[in-house]
From TrEMBL:
<protein>
    <recommendedName>
        <fullName>histidine kinase</fullName>
        <ecNumber>2.7.13.3</ecNumber>
    </recommendedName>
</protein>
<keyword id="KW-0547">Nucleotide-binding</keyword>
<dbReference type="InterPro" id="IPR004358">
    <property type="entry name" value="Sig_transdc_His_kin-like_C"/>
</dbReference>
<feature type="region of interest" description="Disordered">
    <location>
        <begin position="461"/>
        <end position="480"/>
    </location>
</feature>
<dbReference type="InterPro" id="IPR003594">
    <property type="entry name" value="HATPase_dom"/>
</dbReference>
<feature type="compositionally biased region" description="Basic residues">
    <location>
        <begin position="464"/>
        <end position="476"/>
    </location>
</feature>
<keyword id="KW-0067">ATP-binding</keyword>
<dbReference type="Pfam" id="PF13589">
    <property type="entry name" value="HATPase_c_3"/>
</dbReference>
<dbReference type="GO" id="GO:0005524">
    <property type="term" value="F:ATP binding"/>
</dbReference>
<feature type="domain" description="Histidine kinase">
    <location>
        <begin position="658"/>
        <end position="766"/>
    </location>
</feature>
<dbReference type="Pfam" id="PF02518">
    <property type="entry name" value="HATPase_c"/>
</dbReference>
<dbReference type="InterPro" id="IPR036890">
    <property type="entry name" value="HATPase_C_sf"/>
</dbReference>
<dbReference type="GO" id="GO:0004673">
    <property type="term" value="F:protein histidine kinase activity"/>
</dbReference>
<dbReference type="InterPro" id="IPR005467">
    <property type="entry name" value="His_kinase_dom"/>
</dbReference>
Length: 766
């Protein structure tokens, strides 16, 4: 049997040279290395950073990077900066003062300095330090040395007096804070084209909203005595957006919104709308104005990125740093609003997208947090009710904050509906037919030309064999077979390029059909879910009716026995009242289950001449208890001509669905109404059509929503936080019944004679 004897325990040792090599491999280029250093300044809560190149074509080149961030004390410098791959940023995801989401996370960025220069001087100071620290790193110590990483040491000094050198004035003194990096003897040739690559890299790190950018980068190039200042701005990246939306609420509570389609260059501008008309159920007046809001829809399409000459990788980095809707008070960022997770996603964009993940041409499309770059601007003086929390971690979530959130969500929802309609128009069946015709035509033409080329090549081969192409003596020489063959091969190359174009069009065609199929599948699934709920309701209806019958019978017996008591006391009277309420409740449940079971009768799914007035009376009777509990007065106004009946060749179940939807929408609109609640149904006719009008005196429809509410997955019902509630399918189904099944029309109006919404259904007489 083998025996072992322990000698000692030893750790892995890292070679200094290998460690530096790993660092270099983790940083793909010198421009990325500088970008990582800038991210360190951003993470240190710097507001401004200066980058200065001192380039001499005949001498040594130097780079100076200085920021006004928090700086480092001795412990941070030795325990964090000199520690490779530190986990500090992993466990502290946000910066200490400005609460920025840290841009750098690997702890390897400082190793990138090795590929930039041969020697580094790092000056740093915190606000409470009396003197700056100086760290000197000579990267040549790591070259060709077979020693451990910890065997190489670097000198640390305390600087007496103000930091100064021949590379320009430093802002570090006893009253300031920050970090200054001096990179001596640069290893790369920083040509104009190389600097341009760096500029594009740095633009990803600054906010595209210039006036609200709390992190400014200044770049200065001093080349052979000539000085050049380069502005670092990312505003141009917003040109990749497909839509730009601006909204505002003024001091009087009026709402204005402007939608600009950057592809078609069309602008839709809504005139100022009173708050209570723009958003229903969120108060009569906005408590938070004035506020301005703007956002860009960034879709990351190939053509979009081409417009700004941006790679997909760089675009994703830009969006990672700038995505979401951010809140600014007096142009200063209020955190965490706009961060991708937690309280930062204060508008619930992530949840909305997850609940409706379909593409833009699909019904119910929602914009994702990684597709939007937006800003909200408020003022401390004019928005005093939007107070900061005591811990400075956001705004107090009072009624004004809820209203602000409702305004922003409604503005985004109105854009989503508009963008969806625009995208759907571009991917309609007509576009598919047009693409299909183009592909067929081009493919046929391509095939003919390709066969002609093959024919020509065959003739050239035959000509070469028979030497007919030499020509007669004294005649003008013809092209050689080689030249002719070269010309035909050039045609083949051109045909290959055209084939790529055809393939791209085919891909577009496939994508178009895929979008349409996905859209239909999504709507089908939603309707299937609603149908499943209906089936469950019917299944439970059988059970409910049995138990409700037992309950009604039992309660009726109790009431009879109580009524026989000759001199009832207060307790008996109370039992009578409670029993009566219980009986009414059981009858309500029984009627509801009876109604659900009646819906599955076969005769309701057959086309017959349906008497709409009869259906209307039936539904209103079924809902009588609900209407009475809400103190709703329901009126039927019959203005049909003499001897005329509102009879339509249709499915009875369709009319039940239509009328129930009209009732449920009206009941919801009346919930906040404190005065008399009224629902009115009016039946009229003319020579060629029947007209059914539903009106109420509720909150009415939101402005400019009269058409959109009939779209699938669009709901005008909201909770107090501004989130849409309901399926958004009710009125879409009603529209299908009226227009597709009966050949009629349905219209919505924001103002009725009663003061609320009005729906008008017109059915042709047949």
């Amino acid at each position: 049997m083998m025996k072992i004897k322990k000698l000692e325990s030893k750790p892995f040792e890292l070679s200094a040279r290998v460690t530096m090599q790993l660092g270099r491999e983790s940083i793909s280029s010198s421009t990325v290395a500088i970008s990582e250093l800038i991210k360190n300044s951003y993470d240190a809560d710097a507001e401004e950073i200066s980058i200065k190149f001192l380039l001499d074509s005949k001498g040594v080149n130097t780079l100076v990077i200085e920021d006004n961030g928090l700086g480092m004390d001795y412990a941070t410098l030795t325990n964090n900066w000199l520690k490779i791959g530190t986990s500090n940023k992993v466990y502290n995801a946000y910066s200490p003062v400005k609460k920025r989401l840290r841009a750098g996370a690997k702890g390897l960025g400082r190793l990138g300095v090795d590929r930039l220069c041969k020697k580094l001087q790092l000056f740093t100071k915190t606000a409470d330090m009396k003197a700056p620290l100086l760290l000197e790193v000579d990267w040549k110590k790591y070259e060709g040395v077979d020693v451990g990483l910890s065997d190489i040491e670097h000198d640390i000094y305390e600087v007496v007096g103000k930091v100064s050198d021949k590379y320009g004035k430093s802002n570090l003194d006893e009253k300031t804070q920050g970090t200054r990096l001096v990179l001596h003897d640069l290893t790369d040739n920083w040509s104009d084209s190389f600097v341009e690559v760096l500029v594009n890299e740095l633009r990803l790190l600054v906010s595209p909203f210039k006036s609200m950018n709390d992190f400014k980068i200044k770049l200065n190039i001093e080349r052979d005595g000539k000085n050049q200042n380069i502005e670092i701005s990312s505003e141009h990246i917003l040109d990749a957006a497909r839509w730009h939306v601006k909204g505002m609420v003024d001091t009087d509570g009026n709402v204005g919104v402007e939608y600009h389609n950057k592809i078609s260059n069309e602008t839709i501008k809504l005139e100022p709308i009173p708050w209570h008309n723009w958003i229903k159920g969120a108060g009569k007046k906005a408590n938070f104005g004035p506020v301005s809001f703007e956002f860009y829809y960034m879709s990351q399409g190939t053509e979009d990125l081409k417009r700004v000459n941006l790679k997909a990788k760089n675009f994703r980095e830009f969006m990672r740093l700038n995505q979401g809707v951010r809140l600014y008070r007096d142009f200063f960022r209020v955190r965490p609003y706009g961060e991708p997770t937690g309280k930062g996603d204060w508008l619930g964009l992530g949840f909305r997208k997850a609940s409706s993940p379909g593409g833009i041409s699909q019904g119910g499309w929602k914009i994702g947090p990684n597709q939007i770059v937006g800003s909200v601007i408020i003022s401390r003086n004019e928005n005093a009710i939007l107070n900061d929390q005591a811990n400075r971690e956001g705004i107090v979530e009072n009624e004004a904050f809820d209203q602000l959130r409702v305004f922003l969500i409604k503005t985004i929802e109105s854009f989503e509906t508009l963008a969806h309609k625009d995208a759907k128009q571009n991917t309609d069946v007509n576009l598919s037919e047009e693409l299909a015709a183009w592909v067929e035509k081009e493919s046929k033409k391509y095939s003919e030309e390709y066969n002609q080329v093959l024919n020509n090549i065959s003739n050239i081969k035959e000509s070469k064999r028979s030497k007919k192409n030499k020509g007669k003596k004294g005649s003008k020489p013809k092209l050689s077979p080689e030249k002719l063959l070269e010309a035909e091969l050039a045609k083949i190359a051109n045909l290959a390029k055209r084939q790529e174009v055809i393939q791209d069009k085919v891909n577009d065609l496939i994508a178009t059909y895929s979008e349409q199929i996905s859209d239909m599948e999504y709507q089908k699934d939603t309707l299937s879910n609603l149908a499943s709920i209906g089936i469950l309701t019917i299944s439970f209806g059988h059970e409910v009716r049995q138990h409700s019958s037992l309950a009604m019978s039992g309660i009726s017996s109790v009431i009879k026995r109580l009524n026989r008591i000759p001199e009832p006391d207060d307790n008996i009277e109370r039992c009578r009242r409670l029993s009566k309420h219980a009986l009414e409740g059981a009858m309500y449940v029984d009627n509801f289950s009876k109604f659900a079971l009646d819906n599955i009768k076969p005769d309701k799914r057959k086309r017959t001449k349906v008497n709409v007035l009869t259906v209307l009376n039936y539904i209103s009777t079924m809902l009588k208890d609900t209407l009475d509990k809400m103190d709703v007065e329901f009126k039927i106004i019959n203005e049909l001509s003499i001897d005329s009946e509102f009879r339509v060749f249709s499915f009875e179940i369709d009319w039940e669905s239509i009328i129930i939807n009209m009732f449920t929408n009206a009941i919801w609109a009346l919930e906040t109404q404190t005065s008399t609640r009224v629902i009115e149904a009016r039946l009229e006719d003319s020579v060629d059509e029947y007209v059914l009008t539903f009106a109420d005196n509720g909150v009415g429809l939101e402005s400019n929503s009269e058409e959109n509410i009939f779209l699938p997955m669009v709901s005008g019902k909201r909770d107090k936080s501004g989130n849409s509630i309901g399926t958004g399918m009710g009125l879409a189904i009603v529209k299908t019944h009226v227009e597709d099944h009966m050949g009629g029309q349905i219209q919505a109006s924001n103002c009725s004679s009663l003061g609320g919404a009005k729906f008008t259904i017109r059915i042709p007489k047949r």
